[in-house]
Amino acid sequence: MSARRWGPVAAVAGWQVAASLCFYSVFAATAYFRDAFEISRTLVGVLVTVAMVGYTVNLFPSGAAVDGFGERRVMLGGLLGLSATAALVGLAPNYGLLLAAVFLLGAFYATAMPASNRGIVNTAPPGRAGLAMGLKQIGVTLGSALAAIIIAAVAALVLWRWGFGAIAALGLLYALYFRVSYRGSDGHGRWAMPDLARLRGNRAYGRLVLAGGFLGAGVFTTVGYSLLYANEAAGLSAAAAGVVLAGVQTTGSLGRLWAGMLADHLGRGRGAAIATAGLTGCAGLLCLALALGPHPVAAVALLLGIGLTTLGATGVYYSCLTELVGPGEVGAATAGGQTAINIGGMLAPPVFGYLADTAGYPAGWLLLAACGFAAAGLVLAIARGAG
User: What value, to the nearest 5°, has the Cα angle with vertex 187 and ends 185 and 189?
Assistant: First the structure.
C-alpha cells in the first residue's frame, strides 16, 4: 500500500493527537488541581463531569456541521478553539473559573469524533478501514500520554500551569500545518440537525449506543483516576504517577491498533463487534482483579492492562458504529455514539470518586468491572446478529 494513499489518514491521525493533547491535559493535571485548589476526590470527578458536559452538549451540532460543510473546516475551528481554551485552563485562578475553562475545552473537543471519523471513512484505503480507524484512535491515547508527560515535565522544571501554555502552542502549530496538508471532503451544503428517528429505528445501532455508555464509564474514569490511584494507593510520586498514566495511554494505543487489524481480518461489521466485546469483557476482569487490592507493582501492571483493553476498545467501537449506518449519516451516528460514551463519562467519575472517598478504591473498581461486563454483553449480541 503506497504511502500516498495513507497520507490523508496520517493527517487526520495527527490532528487527533493535537486535539487530544489539549483536551486530556485536564486529566493529566488532576493531582496538581487537587493540591492547588484543595479539592476532594469527588470534586475531581465533578471536574471531569463538567468537561464531559461541555463535550456532550456540542456533539450533535458538531456532527451536523461535519455532515453539512465537510470535516476540514470543523477540524480547523475545533483545534484553534482547543488551543485557546487549554491556555485558559492553565491561567484559571480558582476552582470556579477552572470549571468554566474546562467546560469550554470540552465543547471544542466535541468536533473531534464526528469530523475525524468522517475523515477516516472517506480516506481509508480499501479493506483497511479498521486499521485506519485504529491508527486514528491511537491519536487519542498518544495525545493523552503526551499531555501527561508534558505536564509532569514542566511541573518538575518550573510550574505545572506553564505546561498548559506549551500544549496550547503545540495545538496551534498543528492547526497551521493541517490547514495546508489536508483537503477533506464536502458536505451537503447546509447545517441541519440529524434525523434521529431514522437512527432509533436501527436496533443494532441502538444496542451499540447503549454499550457506549458503559464503555465511556470505563474510559473516562480510568483516564481521570489512574494518576490519583497510582499516587495515593500505589504510593508513587505525582510525577511517577503521571508516567503511569502515560503508560496506560500507550497500552491503549497498542490495543486500538491490534483490535483494528483483528477487525479487518475477521471481516466488516462482525469483526469489529467481536473485537469490541472481547476487549470490554477482558477490561471487566482486570478491574475485578484491581478491586482485590493487589501489591503496588501488580496494581500498576493491571492499570496498563486496563489501558490496553478499555481504551483499546474505542477504535473498533467506532468502526462497528460506522458499519451500521450509511455514509451520509456518519457524523450524526458518531455524535449519537459519542453522546452515550460521554454520558457514561459524566456519570461514572463522580460515583467512582465518592466510592473511593467513602469505601475505598476497590469499590470503585468493582463499579468499572460491572460496566465492562455490561458493554461486552451488549456488543456480543450485535456480533451474533451480524453473523
Answer: 140
* pLDDT over 90 percentage in the chain: 36
CA atoms within 13 A on the CB side of 354: 7
Q: Round to whole Å and give the CA distance between 48 and 196.
A: 27
Q: In this predicted model, which residue has the larger pLDDT, 373 or 46?
A: 373
The better pLDDT of the pair 253, 230 is held by 230
Mean pLDDT of the chain: 85
Could you give the CA distance from residue 40 to residue 27 in angstroms, rounded to a whole number? 15
C-alpha cell read off for 237: 510520586
Please indicate, yes or no, whether the overall pTM of this predicted structure exceeds 0.90: no
Distance set, CA 178 to CA 112, 120, 387 (Å):
14, 15, 40
pLDDT tens figures, 89-102:
999 999 999 999 99
Measured distance CA(221)–CA(30) in Å, rounded: 12
pLDDT band per the 50, 70, 90 thresholds, residue 200: low
Rg (CA), the chain: 19
- Nearest-angstrom CA–CA distance, 89 and 377: 38
Question: Which residues, 6 or more positions from 186, have their beta carbon under 8 angstroms from its beta carbon?
Answer: 69, 70
Q: Where are the alpha helices (DSSP H) in the chain?
A: 3-23, 25-28, 30-37, 41-57, 59-69, 71-91, 95-109, 112-123, 129-157, 160-181, 196-200, 203-232, 238-266, 270-290, 296-306, 313-323, 330-358, 361-386
Q: What is the mean pLDDT of residues 147-165?
A: 90
Residue owning grid cell 496538508: 181
First to last CA, the chain: 29
Distance CA(12)–CA(182), nearest Å, equals 8
Region 123-147: mean pLDDT is 80
